[in-house]
Amino acid sequence: MALRRTPLLGRYDAHTHTTFSDGRNSVLENARAAEAVGLETVVIADHIFGEAPWLDEMLRQVEAADATCGVKVLAGAEGVILNPDGEVSLTEEVAERLDFILVDFGGMTKGIALDPPARQSRLIANVVSAVTKACESPLVDAIAHPLNLGRFPAVLSPVDFSAASLIEMATAFEQTGTAFEIMNQLPWWFPDHTIERITAEYADVLHLFARFGVRFVVGSDAHSCCGVGNLRWCERVMSAAGLGEEHLLDLPLAGERRKH
């Protein structure tokens, strides 16, 4: 019996990890979990920093899972934004083999997580520059959980960004067609915020970006198959921001900008 078509929010998970990086389960186990919860598409988005010697095997397993499971399995990656110039941790050769690429701020992001400037205004300028220039990269389809800045040495909250700086970033997203990932585990990045506070602050950011025509994707950031398809906080923050299905990108089409 065919599954009833679910709303767009429940159709895909754009951000899952496997044992190819820091996940606990295999590609097949993530794909089966996606099928079990009624998803249509799941992205295997393991971390890539430089070379990925396991890429051939990951692609083989994605193809096998796609052929045997009742869910579309896409080969993706989560890279790192390396610096305020927007350089990313993937090569063109790797990127062209993948269906969907997210990049984020990580512990090796210079000038933000690594050796941040003492002045908050300079740090914010670095973030804005890194985001806008990463959006311009031909290797990038989406920025993963933007403003995930609550666990780095110099903490920034969404409310620390002026409307002008948010608008500058939103304009870059819209003009380049880069997607903004709403990630279910974003509250983890802000251990000193209540869930209500970070939800409200992030909802304000989403609302502003949506006003500028930015499109969004949703992902669980699952590091085990148990978390695949868990998008409840995504749903909560989207509701708080006044966003609906019309603001979400159809995931299978998300990588088309980069490939053409």
Structure at a glance:
The chain is of the alpha/beta class. It has eight helices and seven strands; from the N terminus they run E-H-E-H-E-H-E-H-E-H-E-H-E-H-H. It has one domain: Alpha-Beta Barrel (TIM Barrel), CATH 3.20.20.
Write the layout of secondary structure elements.
Elements: E1 12-16, H1 27-36, E2 41-47, H2 55-68, E3 72-80, H3 92-95, E4 100-104, H4 120-135, E5 142-143, H5 163-176, E6 179-183, H6 195-211, E7 216-219, H7 232-241, H8 256-259
Parallel strand pairs: 1-2, 2-3, 3-4, 4-5, 5-6, 6-7
Helix pairs in contact: 1-2, 4-5, 5-6, 6-7
Q: What would you say the CATH architecture is? A: Alpha-Beta Barrel
What is the CATH class?
A: Alpha Beta
Which band does the percent of strand residues land in? 5-15%
Pick out the low-confidence regions: 1-6
H/E topology pattern: EHEHEHEHEHEHEHH
Query: Between the first and last Cα atoms, what is the distance in angstroms?
Result: 37 Å
Class inferred from helices and paired strands: alpha/beta
Number of helices: 8
Computed CA radius of gyration, to the nearest angstrom: 17 Å
The overall pLDDT average reads: 94
For this structure, what is the CATH homologous superfamily? Metal-dependent hydrolases
Main beta-sheet annotation: 7 strands, parallel
